[in-house]
């Protein structure tokens, strides 16, 4: 069975080079997943690319058009565009669809762009995050997300936290990490694990890590552990492919 599709991973974009490196590594891992399935015409015929919504030299729609030109050259009939976002915020619900629509209008019937659901909707994503951090054995966990001010946009984080036996906290809105730690201390907890709900290490995860250090100094009687974001792994690439094909 041939796969007349190219695959484009769309991230937010950052001035910090680490998220971009993670994005490129994840694209390579997705490429390997596609090759290993043995249902394509060969590694040279598979197109897996990356693009960012912000902080790129070109607007997203132009990045999509450039990628589409490459895909058309390898006889691809479709682009599967996957937003690598964890929450259904403004970027996922408005910005990316608008950019995809502009690109599709410019490309016409040369190729079809299918915007896939954002990665945060995959039902196994939260468990993957926890499975990657077996050393965090505290009796209570705080799941820290960036957060969104879009009404209802943080509900998936709260639901995921409940599913994992954790409580939610946010970097950009309340309830904040410091508020959650203070509340848990008042409730009698002494050992707390803090899990960053982010795809890649970057400036925000660094800031959260620094906040954990400061909280540890503020509450020396507590034992605070800080975990790792999801990062580029074969397991995450597998979830991406599963989401595209479901």
Word description of this protein:
There is one protein chain. Helix content is 43%, strand content 17%. With 246 residues, it is an alpha/beta fold. It has 2 domains: 130 residues, Rossmann fold; 94 residues, Rossmann fold, CATH 3.40.50. It has a 4-stranded parallel β-sheet with strand order 2-1-3-4, with helices on both faces. Strands 6-5-7-8 form a 4-stranded parallel β-sheet, with helices on both faces. The two termini are 17 Å apart. The mean pLDDT is 91.
Q: Notable features of this structure?
A:
four-stranded parallel beta sheet, Rossmann fold, 246 residues, alpha/beta
Q: Brief description of this entry?
A:
This protein is of the alpha/beta class and 246 residues long.
Low-confidence stretches: none
In helices, the fraction of residues equals 40-55%
Q: Could you say which overall geometry the principal axes of the C-alpha atoms support?
A: elongated
Do you know the CATH topology of the largest domain?
Rossmann fold
Number of extended strands: 8
Number of spatially distinct domains: 2
As a percent range, the share of strand residues is: 15-25%
* Mean pLDDT over all positions: 91
Largest sheet: 4 strands, parallel
Tally of helical runs? 8
Strand order across the largest sheet: 2-1-3-4
Structural class comes to alpha/beta
**What is the rounded distance between the termini?**
17 Å
> What order do the SSEs take from the amino end to the carboxyl end, as H and E?
EHEHEHEHEHEHEHEH
Provide the gyration radius in Å: 20 Å
